Amino acid sequence: MKIPRLFSSSACDMAIDLGTVNTVIYVRNRGIVLNEPSVLAVETRDGIRRVKVVGDAAKLMMGKTPAGIEAIRPLRDGVIADLDIAEQMIKHFVDRALDGGRFARRHEIVVCVPVGSTMVERRALRDAASNAGASRVRMIEEPMAAAIGAGLPVTEPRGAMVVDIGGGTTEVAVLSLNGIAYSGSARVGGDRLDETIASYVRRAHNLMIGEATSERIKCEIGAATLPDGEGQRITVKGRDLVNGRPAEVFITEAEIAQALSEPVGQIKAAVLAALEQTAPELSADIIDEGITLTGGGALLARLDEALTDATGLPVKVAEAPLTCVAMGAGQALEHAAYEAVLVNL
Known about the structure:
CATH architecture of the largest domain: 2-Layer Sandwich
Number of strands: 19
Shape: flat
CATH class of the largest domain: Alpha Beta
Strand order of the largest sheet: 3-2-1-9-10-19
Structural class: alpha+beta
Largest sheet: 6 strands, mixed
Strand content: 25-35%
CATH topology of the largest domain: Nucleotidyltransferase, domain 5
Distance between the termini: 36 Å
Helix content: 25-40%
Low-confidence stretches: 1-8
């Protein structure tokens, strides 16, 4: 009797974008099945660490955990910082993506890696994926996956530029013929934007705020260019550094845009550096194709306008920037045309 494809091994092959902020999983023939924060809540008892919750539930606990429980993000700058915890997180997410693992125990996993990651960092990712039940682990560099997910013509003899702004890093790449003609990386991303906002609020308003509040400010009024006048205003709550009591202040869009000028400037510098290093024929293609932004950082208001002003080129945000990398890795897994972009380790 023929085994239905749903229950075959290949039906459970998957691509994982293991990001600093979010983990996104694409399963063959099913598309994106999981998109959750890369966070675990770990309880320590008698010297033994046990995972309590993972993903959305763990993120809600950040900054609010009692003694003995810690909310941990096991990745920093796109690479594993805590191998044991990262392995447990990957196993949890893979089991959830496969509906508790009831379809297949062994499967191929394609893992997305930062283009500037070292062999040691890549092997850590490979080992973590293998221990999560993978029979085969292959890798794809994040800018290439992002470009495929954004629908750029990476298999053609035509240059395309992608700027992938993740939680820990910004990766800039020029791609052509299933390869990366130029790549560069800057240690600036969504986390750096959050840290900059928290630092500004502490310095300008004597108010201590947590990660969740910084992220909310970024999402609600964060911008890459100054608005006309003050722009929007929001109320921010935290701890007053002068008297130690809870307090709230008003913060304007103009303040945050000014505070973010330094990290946004680093993103601009990385893009300009890439353009300076790009071959003339590829540069000519980029004039027509423009620059495509992917990753969560691409959602920063008016970032495309800021980059257009800096480069003089058309800049667009991908249709689904948060899931572009996972989508692209999944398409590379499914389609033979992209076989050349997958690397065995």
